[in-house]
Amino acid sequence: MLKVGVFGVGHLGKFHLNNWKEIEGVKLVGFFDPNNDNANQVVEEYGLKRFMDEDKLMDACDIIDVITPTDHHFSVCMQAIRKGKHVFVEKPLANTIQEGRDIVNIVREANVKVQVGHVERFNPAFLALKDMNLNPMFIEVHRLAQFNPRGTEVSVILDLMIHDIDIILSLVKSDVKHISASGVAVMTDTPDIANVRIEFNNGCVANLTSSRISMKKMRKMRLFQPNSYIGIDFLEKKTEIIKLKQPEDTNVFSFDIETHNGKKTIAIANPVISPQNAIKLELQSFVDSIVNNTATVVSEIDGFLAMEVAHQILEKINSTSILV
Q1: Nearest 5 degrees, angle CA 95-CA 99-CA 102?
Q2: Which of 251, 271, 260 is nearest to 134 (CA)?
Q3: In this predicted model, what pLDDT tens digit does every residue of 173-197 receive, in sequence order?
Q4: 3 membership: H or E segment, kind and range
Q5: What is the pTM of this model?
């Protein structure tokens, strides 16, 4: 039985508590949170022990789940890793590049598992493509959210766009060549809306727009590659594939079009999306990696690479940003 301790039981922390309770082979030992309102609510609703000493909670656990504000990720992760504990940490991995690099370096020596909470990797709409050969050469992303003070201790890049940065880096097997970016701080002291263009050495280009001051919600990614287009709606949990029909393509809607190269048959498919809980899936996968001694789906290195690109974007924005 793996014992779990949770650091931070705010809005997202409660989602984690609910899901840890449903995962076999783990036991919630307790939590640490300096916010008395959060802590009292969790004690009352979950009957979970509140620890007032971080060390004592870590010493009682095998897994530390870090859902604190970003500026506390580094201290909690380093303390847990030094104690030989496995760590699940919410995105972004850390607050600064140096902190992220230090976490990566200590994990190499500690023989523990670390997973970063890039939950969109476990979104059912994205998982529906796991058997498809994805080799995008152009990517377009829109991630829009209504304003919520929660999470505004970091920019929209580290709050929202980093989800898509991680997905893109997992798909494009090439180094970043050039980044162009612009952003505007509207409601906070950091960019609340941003548009970014990432160019890769293999020729792929990704255009990303993220906003946390939108009137509507949207989380869409469009992938364009030779002979096919893939649309992913992370919010509505829908996936669409449009491609040139192959002999093995059956049970799909298709139609013929005339091109300058002659007649082509276009196939449209909507993969079946399994109604799955992405947070539970990511926590379950972390437990599986510990039990089976396998690599985590989103490692500390993955988290650092996404964070590194995010900070490069912020550097570009800071040199040209407009403050309203």
Answers
A1: 155
A2: 271
A3: 899 999 999 999 898 888 899 999 9
A4: strand 2-7
A5: 0.89
Does domain 122-274+308-323 fall under CATH 3.30.360.10? My reply is: yes
- Where are the CATH 3.40.50.720 domain residues in the chain? 2-118+279-298
Is CATH 3.40.50.720 the classification given to domain 2-118+279-298?
yes
Buried b (16+ CB within 10 A) or exposed e, 113-147: bbbbbbbbbbbbbbbbbeebeeebeebbbbbbbee
Token pair for 188 = 């906070």
Containing 65, the helix (H) or strand (E) segment is strand 63-66
Strands (DSSP E) along 81-233, which ranges?
86-90, 114-117, 138-144, 176-185, 193-200, 205-211, 218-225, 228-233
Which residues have CB under 8 Å from 145's CB, separation 6+? 160, 211, 212, 214, 217
**Radius of gyration (Cα) for the chain, nearest Å?**
21
Which pair of tokens denotes residue 26? 């783990």
